[in-house]
Amino acid sequence: MNLKNKTHAHHPSQVVAAASTVHNHEKNGKTGEFLSDIILGGQDGLVNTLGVILGLAAASGDFRIVVAGGLAGAIAEAVSMGAVGYTSKLAERDYYLSELKREDFEIENMPLEEQQEIREIYEKKGFKGELLEEVVKVLTADKKVWLHTMMREELGLSPVADGRPANAAILIGFSSFVGAIVPLIPFLTFYVGKIRFAGDVTAAIFIALGVSALTLFIVGAIKSKLTVGRWYRSGLQMMIIGILSALIGYLIGLIFSVQVS
Predict the structure, then answer these.
(1) What is the pLDDT of residue 19?
(2) Does the reported pTM lie above 0.85?
(3) Buried b vs exposed e over 92-129: b needs ≥16 C-beta within 10 Å?
(4) Could you give the CA distance from residue 260 to residue 24 in angstroms, rounded to a whole number?
(5) Structural domain range at position 18
(6) H helices then E strands: how many in the chain?
(7) Residues 24-41: pLDDT tens digits?
């Protein structure tokens, strides 16, 4: 009696509910991809530009050179990141669509073989007997559910291809430019506002480092929502890696500064 009740506790009503969540999984996947593109572009733009302006500041000590070089680097980085984002998303989309077409053909022309693949997939997940057959029945009753289940469970592919590569390129490029502006703000403020006092370049460097470190920490903490791990650990990790990478530019600038003098 207890065994029977326990079996019904996992009965097909749960399978039906699980099958109906395919759309929600796709929607969540798109949201995660959207945030991932923003983080990718923003982080890359911030770290690269910070490294460039720190190097220029250490080598020249001239706000005009730092601002001009930083803006040029920020724009070039944004265009480059957008182009990389476009080509990579295009490749992902093309691959996904080719696999989707192949699976669709196999479902139409070899339904029994594809049903057996579904059966084997869920048998490995621990489903057995009547419950396993009910899972197969429910998942193969709707072609869209069946198709996306094969894509996700057999091939490990998510419907990232539904997004347009051009949109991803614009998003990544814009995020890269916004990220690049963050470390430039202190130097722009000093330069445009004509603020001058002893050690002003050094002050701008420390302010840029502080603002960038805080931004990287916040972005890392947000990134933890897309992955697993504690938010503060993810934030510290991104902050430390980003700042250390940017400081390489500062060290190179110091080397050239010593040579010039």
Answers:
(1) 47
(2) no
(3) bbeebeebbeebeeebeeeeeebbebbbebbeeeebee
(4) 60
(5) 2-247
(6) 10, 0
(7) 444 555 666 778 888 888
- φ/ψ of 160, rounded to 5, equals -65, -20
Q: Is residue 259 part of a domain?
A: no
Judged against a pLDDT cut of 80, whether residue 101 lies above it is answered with: yes
Which string of DSSP letters, residue by residue, matches 175-221? HHHHHHHHHHHHHHHHHHTT---TTHHHHHHHHHHHHHHHHHHHHHH
Task: Provide the number of structural domains found in the chain.
Answer: 1
Residues 53, 66 contacting (CB under 8 angstroms): yes
Specify if 107 maps to a domain. yes
Sole residue written with tokens 């430390």 = 240
In a domain, 10, yes or no: yes
In a domain, 178, yes or no: yes
The token duo for 221 is 């903490």
Q: What does R_g of the chain's alpha carbons equal in angstroms?
A: 26
Nearest to 238 by CA among 256, 210, 215: 215
Measure the CA–CA gap between 135 and 239, rounded to whole angstroms: 46
Q: DSSP assignment, residue 1? A: -
Cβ 253 vs Cβ 59: under 8 Å = yes
Residues 149-154, mean pLDDT to the nearest whole number: 77
Which residues does 251 contact at the CB level (< 8 Å), separation at least 6?
A: 58
